[in-house]
Amino acid sequence: MESRVLSRATNFASIPHLRKLTRESNTPCFVSTRTIGVVGQGGNLVWGRQLRPALLLESFQVMRKDVLKPCLAAAEGSDSAGGEKIAPVGFFDKYPAILTGFFFFMWYFLNVIFNILNKKIYNYFPYPYFVSVVHLGVGVVYCLVSWAVGLPKRAPIDSNLLKLLIPVAVCHALGHVSSNVSFAAVAVSFTHTIKALEPFFNAAASQFILGQSIPIGLWLSLAPVVLGVAMASLTELSFNWTGFISAMISNISFTYRSIYSKKAMTDMDSTNIYAYISIIALIVCIPPALIVEGPQLIKHGFNDAITKVGLVKFVSDLFWVGMFYHLYNQLATNTLERVAPLTHAVGNVLKRVFVIGFSIVVFGNKISTQTGIGTSIAIAGVAIYSYIKAKLEEEKRQLKAP
């Protein structure tokens, strides 16, 4: 999850006071609530891009805290001393840090599993265009099933909204495919080192395309990132131009996706928006996969993979890599919505460290001393940049607060 679209804070409908009404009548308590997660009212679309489990989590929290407790207290009445009985507080409500820590752990765990399984597939099935289609295809099926069961209810789409979402989806598709081309061509650790340059491209786009003023301190914090990536690239044993250029194209694509996403904010909830973007991106990815890899896949690609690992493992690997891709982004959405911007920034940096470290251990990639030092400098630079940017955003929010 690497770029994200944030909008204003969500405002929930106020919950009416129910105790007095329930005491006077034995009728059940009914409360209507407004839909949450609407982008125009503060919905949050996080790239990684998958469905927001936070929608369900927040819905249950609102119902439990603001609806069920008043109804329960009213139904039970008062004790002998005249005081009202209060429903017990849940364990995770009492210790929210434990739940947040669990989300962080699952986010990192699923991310690492996805990267490892993804690379293992490329070792016996080197067709990144087709695998990218599988990633998006599994996510789209998940979205369609969610619509079928009403979680969430599918929002209608018109031609005007479609025109806004198409540029976002095209950039999303291009960034995703180019990332996978890089993963297939070079070591996972090297691709993630190159993708550490994404903040540099974001800052450049903000300064020169959107016309936003970037403080000199923020620019200076990016110098170690550029230096570290350059050092790592010069002595990376798995280096090739296909992997390097593809990772750079991914950085540029995700930067432009962020720019177009700001223009595409609507009143539709983020879950439906991402579902439509995934469908469009899937449609965009299919033709290149057929043109670039179709003949090889039909001639020997599928047969070679089945011969090496068997049909069952081949199909299950493709299914699970798509599910892990979806789930780690889903957990990232829920995790990052629970923490402050600074914690979020640190979490993103640590995620990349975990992925790089585990990929080196699992695949036994040999790296030179200079590559190791360069990677460390690049990651440290990203950490400094993320810290400064988060502090600046926090100061802006405090100045706008009444």
UniProtKB/TrEMBL annotation:
Q: Where in the cell is it found?
A: Plastid, Chloroplast membrane
Q: Where is the Sugar phosphate transporter domain?
A: 100-386
Listed GO MF terms: organophosphate ester transmembrane transporter activity; phosphoglycerate transmembrane transporter activity
Q: Which NCBIfam families match?
A: tpt (TIGR00817)
Q: Membrane-spanning regions, if any?
A: 95-117, 129-149, 161-177, 216-235, 241-260, 272-291, 311-328, 349-365, 371-388
A GO cellular component annotation here is:
chloroplast membrane
Specify the species: Quillaja saponaria (Soap bark tree)
- What is its membrane topology? Multi-pass membrane protein
**Does this entry carry the keyword Transmembrane helix?**
yes
Under the heading InterPro entries, the entry gives: EmrE-like, Sugar_P_trans_dom, Tpt_PEP_transl, TPT_transporter
Q: What is this protein called?
A: Triose phosphate/phosphate translocator, chloroplastic
Arranged from A to Z, the UniProt key words for this protein are: Chloroplast, Membrane, Plastid, Transit peptide, Transmembrane, Transmembrane helix, Transport
* PANTHER family from the UniProt entry: SOLUTE CARRIER FAMILY 35 (PTHR11132)
Give the source's domain of life in one word: Eukaryota
